[in-house]
Amino acid sequence: MKRDFLTLLDFSPAELETLIEQAIALKRVRHTHRPLVGRTLAMIFEKSSTRTRVSFEAGMAQLGGHALFLSPRDTQLGRGEPVEDTARVLGRMVDIVMIRNDDQQALEQFAAACDVPVINGLSDRYHPCQLLADVQTLVEHFGSISGRTVAWIGDGNNVCNSFALAARQFGFQLRVACPEGFDPDADVLAQCGDAVELMRDPEQAAEGADAIVTDVWASMGQESEQAQRMAAFAAYQVDDALMAKAADHAVFLHCLPAHRGEEVTASVIDGPQSLVWAEAENRLHAQKALLCFLLQ
Ligand code: CP
Ligand code: NVA
Predict the structure, then answer these.
(1) CA-based nearest residue to 268, from 102, 154, 146, 176
(2) pLDDT tens for residues 31-64?
(3) Residue 122 in contact with ligand 1 by CB distance below 6 A
(4) Which is the most buried residue in 99, 156, 235, 252, by most CB within 10 A?
């Protein structure tokens, strides 16, 4: 039976641990491990991307396979061909599909109609591939993530939802500090139980934390809410004072792209506690591990 990776709950905690170990191992053999010769990944991007596109495309090339970039602008998807029809056809031509869209439900419909594995490359609800890279980065830095405390500061968005599921699956504590009206999805929180704690005060969330994480205040598709969101999140900037509340050894993560002077100051993201470049690089290694897992 084919497997999909649409949320972090699609894999067991043991499988996720193995993926992270594989990702760390693959980092050491970047160009010499080629198990996917002749395999093709189709990547459907309904939204912009730098990291996700390049990491999947470079990753497939390094593994010996090929990646194909598909935009709705120049495929029949953009002209109204049903998602399921596209899924059936792609499933007969390629070995695996990645989709970035604004509709988790459409992603699930696509996966149900497609005979090959489907990967969520970011949706309105989740960004599970980002969390593989983030967990890899924390494991590389701390040795283990189990029992650690991570503070998410800002918008309870798609990346935050995936952070919550990661806390449940990898056994760490997530404190989410966001203004009222910007909480992570209630059904996600309900599935995470004690692993996730919701609060309003960023300082309370940051207190003694091992890692501080944030993301943009207006995600792709929310550009018209920019001004309103800037006002709502004004007290949620990650700056040096907030980092000082965390543990001395605390690190800073951000999935990127970042807006310096909004959700994070330049002094933090470009400072000594920031792991954002390793985090971005790990998208490549973590997704290579994911591709191998789903295709082998
Ligand atoms: N973090 C991330 O997914 O970046 P891109 O939007 O550039 O793919
Ligand atoms: N929350 C952001 C993440 C971008 C990688 C967005 O959805 O635009």
Answers:
(1) 154
(2) 899 999 999 999 999 999 999 999 999 999 999 9
(3) yes
(4) 99
Mutation to probe ligand 1, out of 55, 122, 290 (largest number of atoms < 8 A from CB): 122
Q: How far is the CA of 258 from the centre of ligand 1 (A)?
A: 10
Please give the backbone phi and psi of residue 184, each rounded to the nearest 5 degrees, phi first: -60, 165
Confirm or reject: Cβ of 211 under 6 Å from ligand 2.
no
Collapsing DSSP states into helix, strand and coil, what is residue 201? coil
Q: In sequence order, what are the residues at sequence separation of 6 or more whose Cβ sits closer than 8 angstroms to the Cβ of residue 119?
A: 4, 5, 6, 96, 97, 98, 99, 129, 290, 294
| Residues 182-226: tens digit of each pLDDT | 999 999 999 999 999 999 999 999 999 999 999 999 999 999 999
Position 147 scores a pLDDT of 95
- E-assigned strands of 110-239? 118-120, 149-153, 173-177, 196-199, 211-214
Q: What is the DSSP letter of 276?
A: H
Q: How far is CA 34 from the centre of its chain?
A: 25
pTM, to two decimals = 0.98
Which DSSP string do the residues of 49-63 spell out, in sequence order? -SHHHHHHHHHHHHT
Atom of ligand 1 nearest to the CA of 47: 6
User: Catalytic: which of 22, 62, 130, 287?
Assistant: 130
**How far does CA 17 lie from the centroid of its chain?**
16
Question: Which stretches of the chain are assigned E, i.e. beta strand?
Answer: 40-45, 66-70, 96-100, 118-120, 149-153, 173-177, 196-199, 211-214, 251-254
Round the CA-based radius of gyration of the chain to a whole number and report it: 19
